[in-house]
Amino acid sequence: MNITIYPFFLLLAVITSLHMPILVISPRLIPDPPCNKPDPTTLRPDQMTVIISGFSEHRIPLLHTIAAAYAAAPEVAAVVLLWCNPSTSPQTLAHLTQNLSAVVLRAPSASLNYRFYPWRIIKTKAVLICDDDVVPDAASVAFAFNVWRSDPDRAIGFFARSHAYDVASKTWIYVMEKDKYSIILTKLMILNIEYLEKYSCDEQYAEARRIVEEKNNCEDILMNFVVAEGIRKGPVMVAAEGGGIRDYGDARNDGVSEGVREVGLSSRRGEHRKRRGECIREFHKVLGKMPLKYSYGKIVNDVGEQGLCQKGGKLVHCDQQHFR
After folding, report:
1. What is the pLDDT of residue 25?
2. Can you tell me where the transmembrane regions are (predicted)?
């Protein structure tokens, strides 16, 4: 496939005039763009734009699988690979991403804040932000999008964590609890494009964005602060459908090469929970408030009976029986 190199602003004009994903490589790093506030009347409500954050060349083969899965989903209007590794040459990136089912944009730097920039290429109200090591299931993506459409002010996702106040140390900490959550991770998150504009352009979050830059972490926590501050509600966790959500980046994986499992934009090694707890405390300090709200349970795509009936000497859900 021949790849033509366009200046960035012409590149955007070409992309936005088309109705299907294409491959475009910017010949240079995009300059730090001015804040863009999208016109809500021009945004499609019936589909979403997928933004995949890429950094490691080791994950390019996996990115092909991820991009193809999203591109095949009828709920997806466009797939964008936001390449955040400035050391990758345009020639190398063009070669590695041949036949990729996505538009390729290069971020100005490796800053995690660019994951939430309201790029002009986004022409939908819903934006799906995801990592480059999570392969979606089509049924799960469709279900999550339908849940978002029923409550478009909330952040929707499959991976949840929580903040908590540790009485002993008198500090906020980052935890994973079984009965509640207040943070949806950017492994796969669906949210309204308005929050991208608020995260990136609102001056009240400028110092918090600086903390994200400094720690190379916690952009997802800050976005949950932004959403919760706007609606005074917690996020929504949904149950995976079909084959589930394959997470190659989870350290508990067996049989996944280190080059795929342990590379990426954010720093995950070492005292991961401690560092993210520090982010929560610093965000609380600079913003002067704790807007995070708890949610309980998750939404499932099955309202079958919960009662148990005896069949063949075994107890099974009553709606699994075949009555004549």
Report:
1. 44
2. 6-25
Domain membership of residue 2 (yes or no) is no
DSSP letters for 33-80: PPP----GGGSEEEEEEEEEEE--GGGHHHHHHHHHHHHT-TTEEEEE
Output the CA–CA distances (angstroms, integers) from residue 19 to 52, 78, 121, 188, in the order listed: 19, 8, 11, 24
Domain membership of residue 38 as a residue range: 8-320
Determine contact, residues 155/293, Cβ cutoff 8 Å. no
pTM assigned to the model? 0.84
Q: What whole-number distance in Å separates Cα of residue 124 and Cα of residue 250?
A: 30
What sign does the dihedral 141-147-152-153 (CA atoms) show? negative
One-character DSSP codes across 194-205:
HHHHHHHH-GGG
The contacts of residue 13 (CB under 8 Å, 6+ apart) are none
User: Is residue 1 in a domain?
Assistant: no
Here the tokens at position 97 are 């991403």
pLDDT in tens, 87-108: 999 888 888 888 899 999 999 9
The H-or-E segment that residue 273 falls in is helix 272-287
Residue 55: inside a domain, yes or no? yes
Is 102 domain-assigned?
yes
CB neighbours of 231 closer than 8 A, spacing ≥ 6?
153, 154
For residues 11 and 120, the answer to whether their CB atoms sit within 8 Å is no
Angle at 258 between CA 256 and CA 261, to 5 degrees: 65
Residue 194 buriedness (CB in 10 A; 0-12 / 13-18 / 19+):
buried
The reported pLDDT for the residue numbered 124 is 98
**Annotated catalytic residue, options 137, 220, 302, 319:** 220
Segment 210-218 mean pLDDT: 97
Number of structural domains (the chain) is: 1
Q: What is the CATH number of the domain that holds 88?
A: 3.90.550.10
CA gap 204, 223 in Å, rounded: 13
Average confidence score pLDDT of the chain: 85
Question: How many other CB atoms sit within 10 Å of the CB of residue 269?
Answer: 8
Please classify residue 178 by burial: count the beta carbons closer than 10 Å to its beta carbon, then call 0-12 exposed, 13-18 middle and 19+ buried.
Answer: exposed
